[in-house]
Structures
1.
Amino acid sequence: MARYCFLGHVDPANLEEYRARHAEVWPELLVALRDADWRNYSLFLRPDGLLIGYAESDDLDAAQRRVAETAVNARWQAEMARLFGTEGAPDEAWEFVPEVFNLEVQLERAGEAVLSVR
Amino acid sequence: MARYCFLGHVDPANLEEYRARHAEVWPELLVALRDADWRNYSLFLRPDGLLIGYAESDDLDAAQRRVAETAVNARWQAEMARLFGTEGAPDEAWEFVPEVFNLEVQLERAGEAVLSVR
């Protein structure tokens, strides 16, 4: 399992609509993401429109290809595209940011218990 | 448990040193973070110095107060401070970004299994 961080840009004029839509994502899309191996997927939105994604997957490229093949994802991305400040499908414009630290990985490497023993 | 995203700014002149130091964080600090209830804590670094943190905790404010009380954190922050583009202790200058979506939370709410049943 690997951890991924990626950035996008929501048009600042559309922040409220973006929040409202993402507070109630279609269950069919949630299931498609889950079955494509998107795990622990969160989105964070800064008031200027910077959108930060975090997800875990064995291979997020492969997971993204699988979800991109679903009809529900095509419908969702088409509805979301106009909320973004970028061209094309929002999920094809992610900027990935490399990981430089993970607590649990380094605890394991150091021979320490990953969970607190307090 | 809640999920948190926060931003900082590493001085672009110090990216290599920042990466090298965070590839081998002191085990004593790893344990202090774990015992303060920092969980699944990752850092991601963009080539322009934008630093993105992700962590899980029951209460990250409380977790941060606990780790800030440790001598090892004070030593670490003092060594890291000059790598950042901001004044003061880096861990006191985080900009938190609100979560707008989590896959598992919405799967549960929709009555769907959180793990794939494929």
2.
Amino acid sequence: MEFTVQQIAEAVGGTVEGEATRRVAGLAKIEEAQAGSLTFVANPKYEQYLYTTQASVVMVARSLVLRHPVAPALVRVDDPYSAFTKLLEFYAQATRTNKRGVEEPAYLAATATVGPGHYRGAFSYIGEDCRLGANVQVFPHAYIGDRVTIGEGSVIHAGAKIYADTVIGRFCVVKAGAVVGTDGFGFAPQPDGSYRPIPQIGNVVLEDYVSIGANTTVDCATMGSTLVREGTKIDNLVQVAHNVVIGRHTVIAAQTGISGSCKVGDYCVMAGQVGLVGHIAVADRTSIAAKSGVQKSITQPGRSVQGYPALDLRDSLRALVVYRQLPGLLHRVERLEQAANAPEKP
Amino acid sequence: MEFTVQQIAEAVGGTVEGEATRRVAGLAKIEEAQAGSLTFVANPKYEQYLYTTQASVVMVARSLVLRHPVAPALVRVDDPYSAFTKLLEFYAQATRTNKRGVEEPAYLAATATVGPGHYRGAFSYIGEDCRLGANVQVFPHAYIGDRVTIGEGSVIHAGAKIYADTVIGRFCVVKAGAVVGTDGFGFAPQPDGSYRPIPQIGNVVLEDYVSIGANTTVDCATMGSTLVREGTKIDNLVQVAHNVVIGRHTVIAAQTGISGSCKVGDYCVMAGQVGLVGHIAVADRTSIAAKSGVQKSITQPGRSVQGYPALDLRDSLRALVVYRQLPGLLHRVERLEQAANAPEKP
Amino acid sequence: MEFTVQQIAEAVGGTVEGEATRRVAGLAKIEEAQAGSLTFVANPKYEQYLYTTQASVVMVARSLVLRHPVAPALVRVDDPYSAFTKLLEFYAQATRTNKRGVEEPAYLAATATVGPGHYRGAFSYIGEDCRLGANVQVFPHAYIGDRVTIGEGSVIHAGAKIYADTVIGRFCVVKAGAVVGTDGFGFAPQPDGSYRPIPQIGNVVLEDYVSIGANTTVDCATMGSTLVREGTKIDNLVQVAHNVVIGRHTVIAAQTGISGSCKVGDYCVMAGQVGLVGHIAVADRTSIAAKSGVQKSITQPGRSVQGYPALDLRDSLRALVVYRQLPGLLHRVERLEQAANAPEKP
């Protein structure tokens, strides 16, 4: 896929300076760009690269005044970052996500229905009574169990497993290898010390614009629904246990674990490897630092917490400063004790 | 799937109070139950919901004395919780796990044998010389390598991978995306600083009633067997390294990691995100709190430990209390030092 | 697969003592070896087992002087450990990795090419314009997206997913369920608090002899490449985020997470459940203890660090020693305060 500088300028509403017929085959950061690629300068800090880059084309602000001659062709636009992002999206769609139609063999239960414009990759599986909306993409080896519904424009990536009765909204992304809706980890201890599984008959509901990371697991509820609300983005290898509710537009980084029946608010941010114990609530706009362990509900919105147990960020940072000095502190206490026990100086 | 109140009462040995012909289509918790659903009250704390619930039917104790009139039909039983659990199990079987027969295309090596009553989903793979018992279910995209044996009634979920020579007992569950029996992480450092893989020719043995969580990984032994004994339940995204032995009826929560050659006892409980270093032993009935890091063997049975390094739970909690006060403690030491160095008061 | 003692001796250049016609069917550690198996003694600590083992054959050093009569046949070699490792490799190849040819149904895009000697398992998927070298093995349910190149002798295990444009070198291993090259976790916050995905159009490059663990995730770069350099070995359930670069011959244990844009050096060792915050650098030959959280770049090569925040190993161990004594330390400070405030003794 190649475009001329002129074609790109027209696509982003820009003006060409230099060779309009040059051809571009890829996008790159300016510090890494090679011949044949298009890049941009938005931040003045990166302007220096403009005079040394190998890129064939650079998008720059209309207002930029060149301090030296430049080798690449320029496309002048109002906002180079926005224009570049638009091209990125276009490029990503053209090369990665333009799949349509059916690759055989693919399994579609007789009672399932799929909307227009869909993609079903080879070896994809769609079970009984499923309802898939328009333009849904189901990549190879994806498993969609019985009675699942998936809204318009959602993408189920390679080898993702969506278990029975899951409800997925519009424009969601479930990445490769994610497991959504499998049985929660619920066992009743028996008198002899063994465990008997508690049937998990609930489901998982993902509202619109939710993203579930690669190899992440989201368990179905015991009864009712494990719920991830609109716009929430979950990274790779995250555990979301049964009966959890996660609010809107919350972001959860990789390898975090959310125990059963937690309620997480809207607009929260959890960094990586965080853990929440079961049955707690986290208020809206809470920010939780990496590796923190949250053991109690956070009831006041907008707090930042860190550590295990999770403290207010400021308290945690202050405690960590002293933690590093612990051997010295012990030594100081020992000296005080020696002084206190020493015979009175004359 | 719908039942009348009368049918349910007969199934659980109960007595109907109210409309015996009402129909029920689902099960729910009493605080969330909608019209058409059946629920129960076992705990007196929840009795209040009985007078306001939308549920069509509620199972209650024979001894319960109503304090107000109720809208739902009642089914009186000896033990409402047990009766409800029985219905849950019945419901789960009827709707989720009643798969039988073969969906094509499915791959079955010529030398493999499968017992009566089995299910093999579309795109399931069963390798050479496998032996699968009666009523084994192999969901779509499950991979069963060569020479694997699986006992009666076990379920291998969608996209689980069972590598060569694994032995799985009766009534086990391997959840979606789990990887059992892949090569352990063993490398011999070479003089030039590179690493050469050490062949891993052992296997994994899961005894009866073991449950392996979604996307969990259990590596095969270098030689001999990585062993998970009877009734042990392992949650999602857990790592079990090569040559590990886990005892009977132990429970391991999500994202815990057990390093190579560890020996874990019977009736242990590990919470989430726990880590064990390699080559240690954990005694029977040990309880390990979430996020703990265990660096030494725990030899005395029945202890509770927490933290990193893992301390006795009581010691850990006491240390954490002081940890929170560290900045204050530093300040107090500074004041003592000032007082000690101050000129004698007159 | 059975061999005689004589055949084994010839294969490893050894000399038989005892019955050269005995047959051997497996390999084992000497403390676990059963009749019919071959084992070895290299470490004098294990010599004691030589006189009690059930093994049929034991490889021992030519120089070993027997202190008692032995039951097994012996094969005397220069270096029993090396000879045994050679047999292990031979055994592993013969039983586990000798797959060749194509099992149907398998999906191969019309524009893809595969080298001689390859294996494509049933339900494997190879997309448009892929280039696979000689002797590449693609196990069942593996997904290879468009334009992926895979070098000679590499193995893609069951259900691994390799996304578009990934470049894999020679003699790499990608274990079951690993996800390589899926979109990174990049979102631009919008004025209304929601997030918009930033297209990720880069790729992943694995150089030669790289190993990626089961269910590990390696995200593609936003632009350019996420890079894992030659010989690096990554364990199970590890997260490698977008734009990360990992140097040569580095070893990363299970459940570790490396955040976006980190640069990790050569010959590093990371234990399990380590976390690195984004955009930091880790110098060559750094060793990071289990569960550590690294928040700042480590610029000096060859350091060992531990803890959260990661301190020099020695400092961390000293701080941990005092941490355990915190309740006692608090008590000592309280006593000093009481003494300081007490009325002067007469």
